[in-house]
Amino acid sequence: MNLESLKEDILIDIISLLSPQDAHNLSSLSRLLHFVAMPRALSTIRLTRPSQTRAFCQYMLADVGNRLCWLQNLNVTKYALVHYDRPRQAYDPRVVGVPDSDAAALWLD
Q1: Predicted pLDDT of residue 22
Q2: In sequence order, what DSSP letters do the residues of 26-68 get, joined into one string?
Q3: Vertex 47: Cα angle to 84 and 49 (nearest 5)
Q4: N or C: which end of the chain has fewer CB within 10 A?
Q5: Residue 68: other Cβ atoms inside 10 A
Q6: Any idea what DSSP says for residue 77?
Q7: What is the pLDDT of residues 27-68, one digit of tens each?
C-alpha cells in the first residue's frame, strides 16, 4: 500500500505519532507528504547554533501566515546566538563567545 493513497485525515493521525524530526524527513518525499507533515515538523524547534537561528528565522518569516501557526515549542539555547571559533569552545567556561549580531537581529524582525 502506498502511503500517499491513504486519506488525508488518516495521514495526519499517523504523522502526529512521529517525532518532529521524522515528520520533517517525511515531508521531503513528496508534495502531498510535505503539506501534511510540515505542521508536525514545525511543532517543536530547538536552535543550538547561529546558522540554525538564521535559517529558521528566514524560513519562518518567508511565509509567517502558513508556518508560524504550527510552532508550539521553541527552545533557543544560549549557543544559538553566540559564535565560537571552534564548536568545542562552547563548552569551555573560560572561553567567551562572540555574539552573532546577524542571528540576533533576525529576532527583531
Answers
A1: 95
A2: HHTS-HHHHHHHHHHHTSEEEE-SHHHHHHHHHHHHHTHHHHG
A3: 15
A4: N
A5: 11
A6: -
A7: 999 898 999 999 999 999 999 888 888 899 899 999 989 999
Residue 89 C-alpha cell reads as 569552545
- CA 28 from centre of chain: 14
pLDDT score recorded for residue 37: 94
pLDDT tens digits along 78-101: 778 776 655 555 555 554 555 556
Strands 73-76 and 44-47: parallel
What is the pTM assigned to this prediction? Answer: 0.71
Are the C-beta atoms of residues 92 and 62 closer than 8 Å to each other?
no
Backbone angles phi, psi at 98, to 5 degrees: -95, 125
- For residue 49, give the nearest of 18, 3, 95, 87 by alpha carbon: 87
Residue pair 83/51 in contact (Cβ under 8 Å)? The answer is no
Contact between 102 and 50 under an 8 Å Cβ cutoff? The reply is: yes
